[in-house]
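Page 37, continued from 36.
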């Protein structure tokens, strides 16, 4: 279970820790390598090109757990973002604060081999392999910092549950429509072996057009494949959506009963 001191910590600074890259041992780097090679083999043709471009621009490779200072130096030059280490899940307020500051909170620990297919908290593989490459894309990175700014407002207005769903159906399990077909961009799919294959390979995977009020009223499953996957046409569409939405009105209108009934697991701090 996460360190409660971190979960209850209110300031972003209190949540950030040193990555201590020198403490990863040979087995940690070998686990990273196994996870990296396994994902690359399955998703190469199904993940969006912006992700693949980010992976190479940031030099995130199979050799081992990336060092956040080196990674941040490259990322900062591209979109002003950096990667900071956190021990695991953190409360929503500091989470949103870090995003608004263009600091992506990445778990510093790496999963054990017996946790390859299910992990309760985001580890360094989910966060760095799953989320960080797209932060090199200007439109996506603008969306992420604006999402953080709106999240800080949501914390004050009982809106976190709704934003957690927006988060879930975009940066975690989102799909994007490309001329060659639908592609993956959500980190939760990118970094999971089984779901990546299911989403692109199984005809029963249910794709839905992106409509905000439906997105924030659709629960998500932390421990199962999603019942539906929302498809956007472009990352700038996400940013524009944030700009033109009256979130306070939205929090008042979305059907709460659907939210509570469908959600199997609440993000801590939601
Ligand atoms: N903490 N480390 C970490 N990573 C997350 O994705 C995260 C979090 N805390 C809160 C949180 N997500 C949710 O509240 C938001 O997704 C809404
Ligand atoms: Fe994530």
């Amino acid at each position: 279970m996460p360190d409660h001191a971190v979960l209850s910590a209110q300031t972003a600074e209190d949540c950030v820790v040193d990555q201590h890259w020198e403490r990863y041992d040979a087995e940690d780097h070998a686990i990273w390598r196994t996870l990296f090679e396994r994902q690359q083999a399955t998703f190469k043709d199904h993940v969006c090109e912006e992700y693949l471009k980010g992976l190479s621009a940031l030099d995130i490779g199979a050799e081992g757990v990336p060092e956040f200072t080196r990674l941040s130096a490259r990322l900062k030059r591209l979109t002003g973002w950096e990667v900071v280490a956190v021990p695991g899940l953190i409360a929503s307020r500091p989470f949103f604060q870090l995003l608004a500051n263009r600091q992506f909170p990445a778990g510093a620990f790496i999963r054990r081999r017996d946790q390859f297919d299910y992990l309760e908290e985001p580890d360094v593989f989910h966060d760095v392999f799953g989320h960080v490459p797209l932060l090199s894309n200007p439109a996506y990175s603008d969306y992420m910092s604006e999402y953080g700014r709106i999240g800080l407002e949501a914390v004050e207005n009982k809106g976190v549950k709704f934003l957690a769903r927006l988060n879930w159906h975009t940066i975690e399990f989102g799909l994007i429509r490309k001329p060659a077909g639908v592609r993956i961009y959500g980190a939760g799919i990118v970094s999971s072996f089984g779901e990546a294959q299911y989403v692109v390979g199984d005809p029963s995977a249910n794709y839905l057009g992106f409509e905000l009020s439906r997105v924030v009223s659709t629960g998500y499953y932390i421990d199962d494949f999603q019942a539906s996957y929302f498809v956007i046409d472009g990352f700038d569409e996400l940013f524009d959506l944030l700009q033109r939405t009256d979130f306070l009105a939205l929090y008042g209108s979305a059907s709460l009963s659907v939210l509570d009934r469908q959600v199997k697991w609440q993000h801590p701090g939601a």
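DSSP finds 15 helices and six strands in the chain. Flag for discussion at group meeting. Residues 86, 89-90, 92, 95, 105, 122, 160, 163-164, 167, 267, 269-270 surround 7,8-dihydrobiopterin (ligand 1) (CB under 6 Å).
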